[in-house]
Amino acid sequence: MRGFSTNAIHGSALKKDVHGALRTPIYENVAFEFETSHALELAFEGKALGHSYTRISNPTVEDFEQRIRLLTDATGVVAVSSGMAAISNVILVLAETGSNIISSRRLFGNTYSLFEHTLKPWGMEVRYADMTKPKSLKQSITEKTRAVFLETITNPQLEVADIAEVSSTAAAAGIPVILDGTLTTPYLFKSKDFGVAVEVVSSTKHISGGATTVGGLIVDNGNYDWSTCPRLKKASAQYGPFALIALLRREAYRNFGSCLSPHNAYMQSLGLETLSLRIEKSCTNALAIALFLETCTEVRSVNYPGLAASPGHETAKRQFGNRFGSILTFDLADKDTCFRFMDSLSLVRRATNINDNKTLILHPASTIFCEYSEEEKKRLGVPASMLRLAVGIEDAEDIIADLREGLKKL
Ligand code: PLP
User: Fold this and answer.
1) For ligand 1, is residue 153 a contact (CB within 6 Å)?
2) Selected residue with higher pLDDT from 209 and 12
3) Whether residue 15 has pLDDT greater than 80
4) What would the DSSP string read from start to end of 13-54?
5) Is 159 in the pocket of ligand 1 (CB under 6 A)?
6) Which pLDDT score is estimated for 16?
7) How many angstroms does the Cα of residue 180 sit away from the middle of ligand 1?
8) Do 218 and 141 sit in the same domain of this protein?
9) pLDDT at residue 72 above 90?
């Protein structure tokens, strides 16, 4: 079997380009014509394969989806317009008014906002559990539970749960696990091997190849029987193991209009080809920087799963093949000190993104989490003293030199 990088570069054999182009071109068009009206009818009924309208499918987007399918060994993949579109589309297919999902209490800020501010008013309950203690997860499950949701490494708290244990706890109750694998990507973590039913990824991050474009992925690992999910019963009878992908394509994804543009799919396919190189480099850089920050007296604490003292270290080591991602957080005295430090940096940029080629710094409490009360920030694990460093692929010594200078000025 070929390796990850080879598959990421060569992809799977789709239709040969009419001109023999080595890279699937950008099909920047909306509609596709059919030889006969009957062929058009069959395409609409889902009885014949073929592209009809780019909001539903497109050859450039399909090429990107099929590369991801090859890399994840999934049953099906749908590429969407953003990571948030991936999360919301999956939940809206699986859950209904009156049902609940159980989420990790530690989450990316916008996902928490989706749960609290969007899903709740639609009558969906979100219960929060400590995923590092699967027993607490067990206690939250009811007959109305439609999914368990967690992140591989939570952003920005960097909590790492034992995902196989979460999956087996959920499986014992017949519940599918949805995993946000943005911080690891299928390169560091093959979710199918850990019992995860659906992986969602913000391909805006590592995959886009240096923050070029916004996008998201929904990966159905093909290990969950969708006929047990009330919303998917009918689709299951018709589409069998492809029920989730079919209902996404024929309902949520189509009706919400969250398609990935062909241009973005092209850029992300290109990014995918160098993913392994960039992740390896940024993980190595992040560990070197975490070890450096630990030696600095101005730094009160450093949080990085690669540090032996980190609570998730052993689990992360086992799950992610001795790589620990490219994000770390550290605490300074208070918010004011954090701001002064950020403003003194010259190489590291002040910006809200992760997994760019450039190293970025952010004060999460006053940005991504600014809309939440002090009590909520406390519960979400986002103190005012915390800075998040999303490490890039520059030379580690240059990043460290910039941080050292900044700390000296405090
Ligand atoms: N999930 C995680 C863990 C993230 O960090 C982000 C964005 O930072 C998202 C989802 C949302 O991704 P996007 O910005 O592509 O919608």
Assistant:
1) no
2) 209
3) no
4) --SPPTT--SS------SB---SSHHHHHHHHHTSS----BT
5) no
6) 81
7) 9
8) yes
9) yes
